[in-house]
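Chain X:
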Amino acid sequence: MKNDSIDGNAKSDFKKITIIGVGLIGGSLALAIRQHFPNVQITGVDKQKVLKRALERHAINTPELSVSKAVRNADLVIIATSISSIVKLLPKIAESVNPDAIVTDTGSVKKKIVAMAQKFFRNGNFIGGHPMAGSESKGIEAAHPLLFQNSIYILTPDSKTKRANLKKLANFLRSIEAHVITIDPSVHDSVVSAISHLPQLAAVALMNTVGKKHPHARFYLTLAGGGFRDMTRIASSPFDIWQEILGTNQNEVKKSLDLYINELQKIEKTLGKNPARLSREFQSSRNLRAKIPRSIKGFFSPLFEITVYLEDKPGSLARMTNILAQNSINIKDLELLKVREGHGGTFKLCFENRTIADEAANLLKKEGFDVTAC
């Protein structure tokens, strides 16, 4: 993959940034900012042991245990904690922060946070945020400077938000290679209830449904194939993360659950009775799914794909990516589709446009790779 060098003299609109919560999200933001803007001073607020590790990883310049001290001279404050902590911190930050500073958060539910912020930030300097990126790992150890690259980063301005501040923050996030979109806080919560929160509950329910198929549950699990594994992967998510999210957004989640249950009941009624209607349900879902952006990171524009079969031997993946890198071809996204031990695997490679995808396919074919254009 193409590795663009970072301009050490690049200038940021923000000179002093405070990040409260230097875990996966906060730590990744810090690392991304340090990578693109080495001269920006970053203060981190967290527990002592987290700050020690953040310093060791060069994610922050200054550790601070006091929120009030940390935000006093900052021109950008990012609150990257749990939803309940964000709500509790807002009044304390409002009391101490520079009046001209921009304050944002990374919470995954927005209406409650934005409503609370309106009470304390009357100058329009608070802008809700939600980076649509994450990892199955947690903490500063899992933080990575490329976590937000090509990922959607949502901003949720309200009626008090200053347009100049919104533009300034959006441009800054774009500079660390995130794709920024703006959504009303209420619309955000409705959307994520359907595309994020509902799938989590559906995965939990599906997994438990199979688990209750006694006395032969072990056979169900042993025979579970790729489709079942894909649909239930997020069933492994820890409840302590989801408890707060689901509780905060419960009204929208219940609406989405009601719609989902209604769809399941419609399908149940058609089984063995109305195959034509069931066929229409299948066709409708197929048509809707085709409209989803192809990349798992949620690119705005559809990406162009090829699939490549790689042999199960050391260096196969490195050889493929090196060929493309040597020809300045950037892989926008890469996904392992199928693998069988001892038989190799099929990878999906995504590119910005059809011309680049075709060029990549032709180069790899010349080198003997088994390539299929999608």
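Chain Y:
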Amino acid sequence: MRVKCQASHQRSTTMTRRFNVALIAAVGFLYWIGLYLYVPTLPNYVQSKTHDLAMVGTILSMYGLWQGIIRLPIGIAADWRGRRKPFVAGCLALLALGVFLLGSAQSAGGLLIARTITGLAAGTWVPLVVLFNSFFPPEDSVRATAMLNFVAFAGRMLATSLNGWLNELGGYTLAFYLAAGIAALAALVTLTTHEEARPPRPPSLAGLGRLVTRRDVLVPSSLSIIVHYIAFGTTFGFLPILAKGMGAGDVAQSMLVTLNVAMTIVSSVLVTSLARRIDARLLVYTSCIAAALGTALAAYTPTLTWLYLAQALLGVGFGIGYSVTMGMSIRYVADHERTTAMGLYQALYSIGMFAGPWVSGMLAEMMGIRPMLFATAIATLLPSLLLTARLDTSERLAGQATASSR
């Protein structure tokens, strides 16, 4: 009888775990739709309020700047309280507000404020990733992260593919208002999930200091800065403006970003299946080379067809680099510090999300978009390759530290 009861309890626990994994994945799916439904034509929408490319870059960069500021504090606060779900729900509600304000803004100043709010709301991703990972063993962190990224990229692809059609149907504002409603729905779904409460742990400056100096956290995070610098200076920055100048309409611009996200999904699926069989460094080397080639090709592309190919390469580079570095950044971190570590990782890569459009905007204003793209390809390739060479060392040291703490 006891054996039957234990078996029944185990089945019930497994079903509950799977149900929560599905719910959290659904929240992630809705979150990224709400965040990206308007993104393919956002640079041109911003340019309709100001023709200064440096100002366009500054407005776009607010998204990365403010999420960089908020993500580490959110990670620390979530670990302190021992809960992640309330932070996810709160940030999603903030996202709904920010996107609504983007759609109703009448000036560049209004867009600046609204994009700041959406940047703060992007702090959602810190507790959401760790909440999802909590249903998997630590050794499966790369695989679990790749699974959640697959769902996230699927949401991005659906959102970006609809953007151009929504613009044709109801103008720029329709996509913003729909995104606000979807973000609100995601917040409600979050409230239905179950989270095991963990003992509250007051923040420790010594513990944070140890995380900040850990190679197994810093090396993947530094690589992710470069990955996001490229993505937000190109795909989510100035490639839509370049495409419009080459004659692309809203639907074509939307499809350019959708292709990028589709290749990101394919890459994420490959990481999910290959993470246990192929050295992480080889995967990241592939990411670095693909991103540099895609950026250089975008600089020289004579037609929209070649620009589509450039976007595909950029998608491969981003999908592999993002999935692998995110999983590696928390792989050897203790459970009670994981949200803080993820907050640190995301705060650091937000530097790239801020610097990408900001620096690219200033360079594009000075020298033009194409020379800026070529400079980006050259300037990011060497440091990314050098950092990738350090991944093996950082992982081995982390493994030794984990073993010694047992």
